[in-house]
Design goal:
323 residues, alpha/beta, Rossmann fold, three-stranded parallel β-sheet
C-alpha cells in the first residue's frame, strides 16, 4: 500500500507578493475599501440567479476592468439557495448513475453529513478488471470538481479513486463558489477582514477566470466553463480571504512539510506563481520530494493538450511508491 503523499500545484506563490505590499499601498487600499462601503447604500444592486449556479451571462463584464464590489446571490432567500444546491446535487448524482458500469470500472456516490449539518457529495471509481494497488483521494481546487478522466486513467493503472466536492462546489451544499471557513488560523490581511465582516458573500468582479486562460485547449476550456457544476462567477470575498489566509500560513510553514510529495506546475501559469512551487520544493523538510515544471504550460495541467503526459508522470510517481 502506498505511503501518504501529497500533490500540489504550488498555488500560494503569489501570496508573498500580496503580503509584502508597502504600508502606503495598504493604506490606500484600506481607504478605498472604506469609500466603497460608504457608497454601498447608494449602489445596491443584485446579481441575477443565473450567475449563482455558474451559467454564463452575456452582460457579465462591466465597462472597466477594475475591481467592482457587487451584491451577489447571497441576496437570494435561503430556500432558493438550498434549491439551487439540490439541483446541482441531482445533476452530479445523475452523471454518476449514467456511467455506473463502464466495463472496466464501477462508479458510485455517497452523501456525507458534516457536524454543521451540511451534505457533501462524494464519488468513487473502482477498477473491475485489475487488482487494486493503492487508493487515491482527489481533492479539487477552487471552483473545480471535474476529474473524471484522470480517475479513469488511475483505474486503468490499478488505483481506486475517491473524490469529494468541497462545500459550495459541485454536488455539495452551500452557496455556489462560497467557502465560509478554513480551519487554519493565520495572521489577518489588511483589506479582506473588513469586507468579510460586513459583506462576506460579496464578489470581486474580474477576479476569477475571465482574464487569464487556464489551458491552451480551447475545447477543454469551453467544456469546463459551460459545466453548470463549475462555478464561473467572480470569487466571493470570504472565499478569497480564506484561501489567502491558508496560503499565508503555508508559506510561513513550508519547512514543516515532511511527507512524500510531487509538485507540478506550468511555467506560463498566470494564475499561480511557479516560484511558489519552487519554494515549496526547496524549503520542505521531506526527504522524498519531486518537482516537475512544464515549459509553456498554463494553470490547469489536467486539461492541457499534454494532459496524458502529465497524468503518466503522476501515475509513475505513485507506482514507484506502492508495495
Amino acid at each position: 500500500m502506498a505511503q501518504p503523499g501529497m500533490l500540489t500545484s504550488g498555488a500560494s506563490g503569489r501570496i508573498a507578493a500580496l503580503l509584502s505590499l508597502r504600508v502606503l499601498g495598504g493604506l490606500l487600499i484600506l481607504l478605498r475599501a472604506a469609500a466603497l462601503l460608504l457608497l454601498l447604500p447608494f449602489r445596491w444592486r443584485s446579481v441575477p440567479a443565473s450567475e449563482v449556479d455558474g451559467r454564463p451571462e452575456a452582460s457579465k463584464k462591466g465597462g472597466r476592468g477594475g475591481v467592482v464590489v457587487r451584491v451577489p446571490a447571497a441576496m437570494l432567500p435561503r430556500r432558493q439557495r438550498e434549491q439551487e444546491a439540490a439541483w446541482r446535487r441531482a445533476l452530479a448524482i445523475r452523471r454518476v448513475m449514467e456511467a455506473r458500469q463502464e466495463g472496466r470500472l464501477e462508479r458510485d456516490f455517497a452523501l456525507l453529513t458534516t457536524a454543521r449539518d451540511d451534505t457533501l457529495f462524494t464519488q468513487s471509481w473502482s477498477p473491475l478488471n485489475r487488482e487494486t494497488r493503492g487508493l487515491v483521494v482527489l481533492l479539487h481546487g477552487l471552483n473545480e470538481h471535474r476529474y473524471d478522466h484522470f480517475a479513469k486513467k488511475l483505474n486503468d493503472n490499478g488505483f481506486k479513486v475517491y473524490a469529494m466536492d468541497w462545500i459550495g462546489h459541485g454536488g455539495s451544499d452551500g452557496l455556489h463558489g462560497y467557502v465560509p471557513s478554513l480551519d487554519y488560523a493565520v495572521a489577518d490581511l489588511l483589506l479582506a477582514p473588513l469586507f468579510c465582516l460586513l459583506a462576506p458573500k460579496y464578489q470581486f468582479s474580474n477576479a476569477n477566470n475571465s482574464a487569464s486562460p487556464v489551458s491552451r485547449d480551447a475545447e477543454a476550456v469551453e467544456s469546463k466553463y459551460t459545466d453548470p457544476l463549475v462555478f464561473t462567477g467572480s470569487i466571493r470575498v470570504k472565499t478569497g480571504y480564506e484561501v489567502l489566509r491558508l496560503s499565508a500560513y503555508l508559506m510561513q510553514n513550508l519547512y514543516r512539510v515532511n511527507v512524500p510529495f510531487l509538485v507540478l506546475h506550468g511555467t506560463s501559469d498566470d494564475l499561480t506563481d511557479p516560484e511558489g512551487s519552487r519554494r515549496l520544493f526547496d524549503e520542505a523538510s521531506s526527504t522524498d520530494k519531486s518537482i516537475k515544471l512544464y515549459p509553456g504550460l498554463l494553470h490547469d495541467l489536467l486539461i492541457e493538450p499534454e494532459c496524458d503526459k502529465i497524468m503518466t508522470d503522476i501515475i509513475d510517481w505513485f507506482s514507484c511508491r506502492v508495495c
